[in-house]
Design goal:
The protein contains 12 helices and 18 strands. It is of the alpha+beta class and 397 residues long. The chain has one domain: Aminopeptidase, CATH 3.40.630. Helix 1 packs antiparallel against helix 2 and helix 5 runs antiparallel to helix 9.
Amino acid sequence: MVAKKKRKDPLWAKLLLWLGALLLVASGGGIIGGKLLLDHYSDEITHPGGLGAAATEGKNIDGPINLLLVGVDERVNNTEMGVRADSIIIAHVPASHDGVYLTSIPRDTKVRIPAHPATKYPGGTDKINAAFQGGFQNGGGREGGLELLAETVGNLAGGLKFNGAAIVNFDGFKGLVKALGGVHMCVDERVISIHTGWNTKTGKEGVPFNFVNDLPTTLKPNMRAQTYEVGCYDMEPWEALDYVRQRDKLANNDGDYGRQRHQQQFIKAMMKKATTAGVILNPIKMTEILNSLGDAVSFYNNKVDLTDWIFTLKGIKPDQMITLKVNNGDYHSETINGKSYETLDETAKELLTAIVRDQVGPFVAAHPEMVNNDADTAATAPGATPTKSPSVKASNR
């Protein structure tokens, strides 16, 4: 196990699992036990509350569906830093229920966060990831944090309401990827890991970089960093998880935008693996996956039974997932009083309006540049040859 440097670890996987896991169960549920089995797992992963004023009214998910998917950075033994949402995705399912649009909101987006009297949070202008902390503090917990974040995201989108939301546990997520047996990933830019490396003399695993002010600087003596070259590979669980955590050493210098893109691609890769016959027709593997859900998923179902969610979304396939990039994947930075924020351009704001109006399909048709290229296109990049591992062989671990 690699000794982790105490730095701003987004635990991105907390949110990425949920959509893949939910649709995974939807695809496999009818084969391995139907409604009774789903009711059993519903008791383990569903939670009340968490959406507050941002929740839709009633128990009807027959029309368009909006889900808030959240990854939080929980600082153990660090009350000063608190808990912030490091990954925020709006998952929009049109009323036709024939696809999913995933839109990542940059965590540094400048927003007006409403006051939250229950936790004595006064509100104000801040980065959007601070909303979770505002609702989490003073006993608000995850439900309070999710509630304030949902209201903040809803206001940013001009009145968006959510049918449900999810927070995913990182450690549980690792168990689920292991149960899947890894995934097939296509690397679209050279990525150097700041978390995983090997000593060239002893062969021992360790953190490869020195850190200054929480940022990686130079390689440590005799250390070689894990590197992911452009191409398509069958990644082992540790490789896939390490790859999509990276944001500091990306070849295109696209930072959080690159990581968001890789996270979205990872969702697709998980769904593709989960819906293969080798998984859904294997009762042992399916049981391992389903048993990991309780440790991995906290789903706030807004009083709608999990079985209704699953059977409503069961027809959606991996190739019907469209991943979208705000600001065309470019930085739109603004510094106010020494603090750096991201701002949304007009096209990004129009996308949020289209989500509210359930007009994302026509919007995307008019703005194809906002669609992230399918990860599979990496296979056609120069020198990209599908192989078993992107660089370091499993024997090195």
